[in-house]
Write a structure and sequence with these properties.
InterPro entries: Entericidin (IPR012556). By secondary structure, the protein is mostly helical. It contains 1 helix and no strands.
């Protein structure tokens, strides 16, 4: 029982870290796209 809980916690933690990195990368992509549009408008 303890092993199942530990495995679940480790898996959940790993997924959360991966999701944060993905969202952060997507945010940077959107920001750079916005800057490109802004530069084109000038």
């Amino acid at each position: 029982m303890t092993r199942k809980i530990l495995a679940t916690l480790l898996l959940t933690g790993s997924l959360m870290v991966a999701a944060c990195n993905t969202v952060e990368g997507a945010g940077k992509d959107v920001q750079s796209a916005g800057q490109a549009v802004e530069n084109a408008a000038n």
